[in-house]
Amino acid sequence: MSAQDNTAARLKAIVQILAEQPGAPVKGTEVLAAAVARVPLSEWESEVLSGGVARGVKRLSAATATLVKEGFILKGRTGWTVTEEGARYATAPDAVALAGSFGHRLGAEDWSAAADQVQMAYSPVSQRWELTAQLPAGTYEYKVAIDRSWEENYGAFGVRNGANHVLQHDGGVVTFRYDHSSNDVAVTVLDGALV
């Protein structure tokens, strides 16, 4: 993994660590150490900078500001705690793919659950996983695959291992939004009509 991927994995680990101890403030240094224990530093990240702090730990410490900004954690004098929003994020999957018959349109193989091109991005604003794509007119089928595998997948109406979602699309930009609490997908086309 890249240093950026490692930092992102450690940020999620921080939220998970705090969610495992709800309500109990934990010292920031202890949280950072526990996150690094879960996602070890690479050789480059282990390089000690002036001030005696490893590069990866310094990057992680600075990046925790995004967790505060997104409302996932609170930092106080007595320590760090997880918010309700953070607790939801902690149990969210690491990856959500929109795998279907349009995979080749996104640069992946059709029905690939592992390809980077079909991975959805988590939006803290909508609290949904999102993917926006330009698709030509046609009928498409798809499912949501969790953590880059078909072991856990959701079809129409959020049914596990259920029937494929079907999208009849007139062509253009379309945004898919996956809600992990309902396991269902909402689709919005460019003109704002809900499909």
UniProtKB/TrEMBL annotation:
It comes from the Bacteria. Signal peptide: none annotated. SUPFAM superfamilies: E set domains. One of its GO terms (biological process) is carbohydrate metabolic process. InterPro entries: Ig-like_fold, Ig_E-set, X25_BaPul-like. Residues 96-183 form the Amylopullulanase X25 domain. This is Amylopullulanase X25 domain-containing protein. It comes from Arthrobacter subterraneus.
